[in-house]
Amino acid sequence: MTAAALGAWIVFEDEAGFSMTPPSRGTWARRALTPTIRMRGWTRCRVTLAGLCCYKPGERSRLFYKLHVHNRRPAKGERRSYDWRDFRWLLVYAHGRLGAPIILIWDNLNTHRTKGMREFIEVTDWLTVYHLPAYTPDLNPVEGIWSVLRRTAHANTVFATPEDLVRALRTGLKKIQYRSHIVDGCLAATGLRP
């Protein structure tokens, strides 16, 4: 069955990590005076994002995300990434907001293939899952969202605390959420159509 026959949303999922050390973009300075910025302390802090780009013909494109801050030194047994329950929460949240079945397209991350996630997918009637082929990030529009975020909210900024980084990422993601043409552009860049 197709997404149109089911009245379903086509949803792409991906994860990305952001650190306190931002990517540098082009900048201007006086000749022979290259600008340098010193960072102290919190450089080991990392923020992981899981995002969903949602598409349905005749509807405005949507973006949902979940943000996780990693401690500099995690406690024993603490995960440094998402587990299958985090992905389940994000999918249930998106389904509630979209109000329609979801056709999920994501990569072969080991967390996506855990026993708990497989059982959740089997018992959930509103969710159909397809895996992307290996090494094909160019087919996932969420990669474009991460690229936009790195070039805007995350670029050329020194974050004094992890809270500053989280605030900048949330602000950047909110701007993208309110501009659905950016989410549409990320899909167009893949060459795919909903």
Automatic annotation (TrEMBL):
Positions of the Tc1-like transposase DDE domain: 10-165
One term of GO molecular function: nucleic acid binding
Annotated Pfam families: DDE_3
Name of the protein in question: Tc1-like transposase DDE domain-containing protein
InterPro entries: RNaseH_sf, Tc1-like_DDE_dom
Domain of life: Bacteria
